[in-house]
Amino acid sequence: MKVLRTPDERFAGLPDFPFMPRYSDVATETGTQLRLHYLDEGRRDGALVLLLHGEPSWCYLYRKMIPPLVANGHRVLAPDLIGFGRSDKPALRSDYTFERHVDWMSAWLLGLDLKGMTLFCQDWGGLIGLRLVARFPERFTGVIAANTGLPAGGGRIPLPFRIWLAFSQYVPRLPIGWLIDKGSVRGLSDAEKGAYDAPFPDESYKAGARQFPALVPITDAHASVAECKQAWQVLERFDKPFVTAFSDRDPITRGRDRILQQRIPGARGQSHVTIQNAGHFLQEDQPERLASLIDGMIRQARRAA
């Protein structure tokens, strides 16, 4: 496996991003070691918050949610998926599969022996994150799912996603910072868009970003349908707090919050919210609101204990 590594100088001086990089190694099935980057901020004995990003972002997406969570005494971990951010980037699109990503993140989670986690997940962070919850339900105390889901075949690709899929596969240059900006309501600065472009010096580094849209297991023809159905068997017994926090301006995931609410026992009786004035990347539009939701779930769990 050919692996690319973004030079460190690409990440120098990013706005609102003073965090120390940390790294773990995860192995492929052939033994190749991949370096996975993550942030680990806050008190070592604080309640553990896991923030999972999606496509085509990286943990920079959480830069404005981490400080208020840390200020409330929590320990916050925000990894970069393989292929994104400061994590290593396999060079071939065929190197990226749904199952490999679940395995890589599982290896990272077990390597740090993370327990008692409150998960916040969005976009592909939810597809992978919900698979982690299904694989290790005993390690999670609660979940907040935002603009995400866990398709398991049996569907048709909706028009907004077909447009995104075609664009991602055929545009000559995949404009990462521009995409994050268009998926946000407030409008990013040039420096912020540059921070999202930073992990990708050229198109050769974007194999994962291009491949992810084609991996969403919407139809029965997709890979990982069987594994996602098995995951749903666990999620349909998951009775710990599960809250949906979908935005009001995301045509890609609109309505998928109801599926999660109906199928996951822990979602019953919860105060699900619609995040107003927010796009697909609602972490850019309403970071303080989202951090408050996470803090509220942790405090509620403490009162119930």
In short:
Strands 2-3-5-4-7-8-9-10 form an eight-stranded mixed sheet, with helices on both faces. The chain has one domain: Rossmann fold (3-Layer(aba) Sandwich), CATH 3.40.50.
Polypeptide structure, described:
- It is a single chain.
- The protein is of the alpha/beta class and 305 residues long.
- It has a single domain (3-304), classed as Alpha/Beta hydrolase fold, catalytic domain (Rossmann fold), CATH 3.40.50.1820.
- The chain has helices at 66-71, 98-111, 124-135, 159-170, 176-182, 190-197, 207-215, 225-235, 256-263, 282-285, 287-304, and strands at residues 3-4, 22-27, 33-41, 48-52, 75-79, 89-90, 117-122, 140-146, 242-247, 273-275.
- The relative contact order is 0.16.
- The mean pLDDT is 97.
